[in-house]
């Protein structure tokens, strides 16, 4: 009998783990479960819709499913509101948790709870067509938007809001999202960055993209820092970014329909509004002799109707597993889950839930290989599960009222999205409503 291994999460780390298990040559049968009917995690619901090349990594990620060597069970949530982890354990020798980091970190400033204030996780999920966020419906009826953060996600959000509807129509954004962007009143997107232009660690290609938009201009607000001269950074990326920013700072402000303002040395203090965001108060910051960001006490107010904070993510605790609240990850040693320093038999982690929300998609490959190496070393000593037969899992899911989306069903949904794309001149248009996704996946055979 093969060892049975479940991978929870069909994002990059889970799929790299499935591939590593498959190519190990060890006698394992692998099932990948995801709470959504569609695979690929943040490649589908995080990577910006206009980053089409980046999404082509899907061709690599889908390989384990192609000859049906690995089973996909979409629409199966494990843990709270789904199949209890303890029950899943009775079907597998080992479980790899690859559930990512889906929770937005807060700024911790007053007014954050107002309508019109979003974490980038929810805002990005909305424009990427994640079924949990179709109802977000952010009001794009005010000319000003603030995006808080100095990473690539902040630039993604700013770019999507600044692009023309024609540019976005060529992407996979769902119809209702495109309609919202088409009727958007947004004119000025203010990116609020606590540090100076010499410190930002955007990927230079991402920064360059906002300088190349058809209908938007970048305006650099640096309080004269660049003209006065800043120390040349040693980091290659920072150096390239500084070169671009130095070039842009002298550009006259033209009459482009939209502007992306890069506001350096600004930190949010509070959001204003009566029920809904109507402004944001920022404090000017400075960098002290030890390189720390310090407030100057000098405040400014920006007129905005929407605030998106792109300041990082944290993992969601998995009931039944230890969790480190400070890092938002599951404690582990090389992928083996540990409780009080002792390995939890048969429990493994990979990806963002293992190491936190850092690195690019490819980083998850080596990370997953490390976890799988630990798992394979442990397999012979792991106790056999009570219900190892594949049919027993199907029966258990049915008993919970869950009809999984298998790989063939996902391919039906995939084909429907490609068909919708053809109607709009795009490669695909996402189906976002859960019921519609399931209808398309299960097709005529739906009960
Ligand atoms: C907005 C954004 C943009 C990004 N853009 C880029 C980019 O352009 N280039 C790049 O290289 N990297 C990018 N990244 C980083 C990249 O997406 C991550 O490195 C990668 O997705 C992490 O993989 P993961 O498998 O750990 O998590 P995820 O991709 O989040 O996958 C986790 C999966 O687990 C599933 N899941 C969660 N909970 C459960 C549960 N209880 N039961 C069952 N299933 C569950 C989820 O549905 C999801 O499919 C971006 C990240 C973000 C947030």
TrEMBL record:
Transmembrane segments: none
Domain of life: Bacteria
The keyword GTP-binding is annotated on this UniProt entry: no
Family matches, as Gene3D superfamilies: FAD/NAD(P)-binding domain, NAD(P)-binding Rossmann-like Domain
Residues engaged in binding NADP(+): 194-195, 206, 359
Matching InterPro entries: FAD/NAD-bd_sf (IPR036188), FAD/NAD-binding_dom (IPR023753), Ferredox_Rdtase (IPR055275), Ferredox_Rdtase_adrenod (IPR021163)
Assigned keywords, A-Z: FAD, Flavoprotein, NADP, Oxidoreductase
Residues that hold FAD according to the record: 13, 42, 78, 352, 359-361
Family matches, as SUPFAM superfamilies: Nucleotide-binding domain
Chain ranges of the FAD/NAD(P)-binding domain: 3-188
GO molecular function: ferredoxin-NADP+ reductase activity
EC code(s) of this entry: 1.18.1.2
Co-factor(s): FAD
Enzymatic reactions: 2 reduced [2Fe-2S]-[ferredoxin] + NADP(+) + H(+) = 2 oxidized [2Fe-2S]-[ferredoxin] + NADPH
PANTHER family linked to this entry: GLUTAMATE SYNTHASE 1 [NADH], CHLOROPLASTIC-LIKE
Similarity field: Belongs to the ferredoxin--NADP reductase type 1 family.
Protein name as catalogued: ferredoxin--NADP(+) reductase
Upper taxonomic lineage: Bacteria, Bacillati, Actinomycetota, Actinomycetes, Pseudonocardiales
